[in-house]
What does this fold into?
Amino acid sequence: MSIRVTFYEICNITTEPFFIYQISIISDRFYKKNAEITADLMVQADISGQDGHGIFRLPQYIKRLQEGGMNPKPKFKILSQRTATALIDGDNGIGHLVMRHAADIAIKKARRTGVSWVGARMSNHAGPAALYTKYVLDNGLIGIYVAVGSANHMPPWGGTDLLLSTNPISIAIPSGVNPPIILDMATTVAAYGKVKTLLQSGKKMPEGWMIDKQGNPLTDPSKSKDGFLLPIGGPKGYGLSLIFGILAGTLNNAAFGKDVIDFNSDHKTITNTGHFIIALDIEAFMDLEQFKSQIDNVWKEMKSSEKLPGISEIRLPGENLAKTIKKRTSLGIEIPAPLFSKLKQIADELSIPELT
It folds into this structure.
């Protein structure tokens, strides 16, 4: 069972709980701005089909705010910077606000220097990686984003100690007449958010997502704590997760390895989540429209490749994303009944209008 709701209904319930809770602490219009930015990014996640990172996370965010594990009114600081780089302290704010701020800095610097790298520490879960590369893309630049995941669900290759996370990467590249090429992937076969959404909907995991500590396939999402996620490409995925964790975590003096806090079960401890975002000005290399035209040619070449038997279509990264955005913007977003009930409960607890 699921309920279909509109973009505007989701906006209402994602904005209001943040605003009402925060406004009860101290009256300040700045809270509403923070809530609106966060709500918009959460809705973008759902509109994009990344259900494990959208309104699904709202109960978790609110609980962390209520228990003091996340700062409702962060004051960002630039700890160090050079012409093309910066490191910011997110003051334990919600990751969406931290990374939007980091992306704004990266865009501004890249327009002057051609390329910029902005790292962030003292942040939190920020939703899907593509939110921030697409934001950079919408400002006419190529965006690259990497984060340390918000809980460790993977051991080093050959081990059993959970020392690594999904550590995602996203890269967004503009095109002309075609949708932009947007890669958004975890370094594990599946993101842990997908495991949680399957649990909520009562579905099984496909074999190959997780194994138990004896190496047996694990398909019951309710037993996910008894096993671990598998890396993409075996040891290659492990290597990517390790390097991304070092660049987004260690380099920013953020949590990595044993220091990563499980955002899913601990609502009080500061996570010190690390991220980085790179903005690249295409005009530093070639004319923007010429580049877009060449990317259209890349589209054409990839799509015209001879297909293997049984394959009906060759897709590029971001193609399905564009279709999903168009569909959900038009038809609305389906919400599983358990999540819908949870949102109604939150609305009741915070004395705000509930979804209908």
In short: Residues 1-11, 15-27 have pLDDT under 50 and may be disordered. The first strand starts at residue 2 and ends at 5. The first helix runs from residue 7 to 23.
